[in-house]
Amino acid sequence: MNEKMDEGDMILKEEIDIGEYETTGELWSRLSRIGAELLLKTVNEIEKGTAPRISQGKEFTIAPMLNKEMSKINWNIEAEKIKNLVCSLNPIMGAYTMYGNKKVKIWKIEILDEFSNEEPGYIIEADDKKGLKIMTRDKIILVTEIQGENAKRMSINDFLRGNKIEVGKILK
After folding, report:
1. Which stretches in the chain have pLDDT values below 70?
2. pLDDT tens digits, residue range 37-64?
3. Is 172 domain-assigned?
4. Which of 94, 66, 88 minimizes the C-alpha distance to 154?
5. 91: cis peptide before it, omega within 30°?
6. 20 to 30 A Cα–Cα from 135, which one of 50, 59, 92, 142?
């Protein structure tokens, strides 16, 4: 034990890869299972007196508190950064954009290996069969799960069957 919060030695640890489109909620579920198994191993090591002690070191980053301003999508950045924002805020608060004067949450996306000369935020395609495609700074993204203002989360195909989104509009 150490007097300071989260500064004591580690006993066991496990490193994992995060999936390319894995959301915070999906990662949380996976880590809870891994953590439970690691906790049992740790308790056994402590009981046997064979628990290693690994210093955490001084290299760390403090994550900022989340706020609503952070969750607004800036379409004038790389598609990869938008994907990371969307995945990291799912299911906590969701990343959002403005379509006209309505707030729309984007819950899941895919990055397409496509480009257009349109400006970032430009709606390239909005079709209930082909989906919703939006230009970013460097690539086009395909929205796969969305939530309209005062509505429930749904697949983009279901959303577009009941909601009109105009090609050519710019998301803000």
Report:
1. 1-5
2. 999 999 999 999 999 998 887 777 778 8
3. no
4. 94
5. yes
6. 92
Task: Give the amino acid at 136.
Answer: T
Q: Using CB atoms within 10 A of its CB, is residue 24 exposed (0-12), middle (13-18) or buried (19+)?
A: middle
Q: H-type helices in 89-155, by residue range?
A: none
Please check whether residue 26 is in contact with residue 67, taking contact to mean a CB–CB distance below 8 angstroms: no
Residue 49 covered by a domain: yes
Output the pTM of the full model: 0.89
Strand partners, 163: none
Instruction: Round to whole Å and give the CA distance between 120 and 137.
Output: 5
Q: Which helix (H) or strand (E) holds 146?
A: strand 140-147
* Residue pair 152/141 in contact by the 8 Å Cβ criterion: no
Note whether residue 136 is domain-resident: yes
Q: In terms of residues, how long is the chain?
A: 172
Tell me if 122 sits within 8 A of 135, measured CB to CB: yes
SS3 at position 138: coil
Tokens read off for 119: 């400006």
Residue after which a domain boundary falls, among 46, 62, 78: 62
